[in-house]
Amino acid sequence: MSNAIQIAASILAADFARMGEQVQEAEQGGAGLIH
Fold this sequence. Notes:
Blueprint: E1 8-9, H1 19-28, E2 33-34
Parallel strand pairs: 1-2
């Protein structure tokens, strides 16, 4: 069993007019999941 920490960025914190860019930035920042 792995105890690795995963970062899940919240879509509610995104700028909805720039959603695609915001998701890319979150992924580049280390977010493995978007919720």
